[in-house]
Amino acid sequence: MKKIISLSVLLLFCVTSIKALATEDWGQNGHRSTAQIAQKHLSKKAIKRITKLLDGNSIAIASTYADEIKSDKAFRGYNKWHYVNIPSGKTYAEVEKELGENAVWGIEECISKLQSEDTERRDKQFYLKMLIHLVGDLHQPLHVGHAYDKGGNDIDVKWFGKDSNLHRVWDSNMIDSYDMSFTELSTHARKLSKTEIKDIAKGNAETWALESRTMAESIYQSVEENKNLGYRYMYDWFPQLKIQLQKGGIRLAKILNELYG
């Protein structure tokens, strides 16, 4: 009987841990949707080379790796790569040194490692998985939010009457409420012209971070602490969230095509 109880407690702990990981940034559906959108914009050559490096796995499956390793103490040093807190009124270049390692730094580091002929295959697999994830993170606006409120994690709100926080609303609450799989989300992304896609792909991690920060400021202004959010918030903001997923996918494809296309 004791063994059965212990096993039940262990299973409950594992499920709870998985759920906690899934709500930290874009959640699984968000990251996989961004990666699936990127897949549609990759060249055939890039798809072939990336699939080979990932041992046959898709970039959608690889997209959640950076969250999955958070439970391993050996990878705790990479946690700071998931976000960047650029003070209002500052450019990234102005505060780059004081920020230390961050999402923009992490993306650039991954690109550098993947470009280097000295990087071993196993390490290239790691940095590719990290890159796929971090580009997604950079387009979750509250990953470029305020440091003092932990990107909205300290701003308590309710989501359809249940306790949540502003960061979690953007990570997973809205996506979960929409109730679509990542393949459905990517399939139903906006239809864009070649010119629109080209315009979205312009820039780099630094300029995309500043764009997300501007959006984050609007998000902060849209809510009051402890406010109950629901249908109206979905109506106002979910279209913007879907745009962020799509931008992340297009920009990820740009980077991957440059590396492998």
From TrEMBL:
Keyword terms, alphabetized = Disulfide bond, Endonuclease, Glycoprotein, Hydrolase, Metal-binding, Nuclease, Signal
Signal peptide positions are 1-22
Coiled-coil boundaries? none
From the Swiss-Prot or TrEMBL record, give the protein name. S1/P1 nuclease
Domain of life (superkingdom): Bacteria
